[in-house]
């Protein structure tokens, strides 16, 4: 008996597939999910999802290490087959941490340059 590999589908693709069903609620969400919600907020959420499903991503902060920005960009690949596995993500993050690339990210943040000096532990 042959077994086929599991099918991978991006979440935004799965969500978009539900939008054409009859009796959908506002913004294409299932009616049961929107029965008590605010239609304006739902429309905003759907607009956000549709932008992301079309490939739009907010720019990553320039002060983040290039290795981290590259990893995040690969995680955002439109084709799920091009995205790294969780074990690969974990291994890369551990390597970055061991190399000290992530140690001073908060200190590099220009918005924190004028902070009060408080720390959270």
From TrEMBL:
Residues 18-37 are annotated as: Disordered. One of its GO terms (molecular function) is protein kinase activity. Residues 53-93 form the Serine-threonine/tyrosine-protein kinase catalytic domain. It holds the Pfam family PK_Tyr_Ser-Thr. This is Serine-threonine/tyrosine-protein kinase catalytic domain-containing protein. It comes from Gonium pectorale.
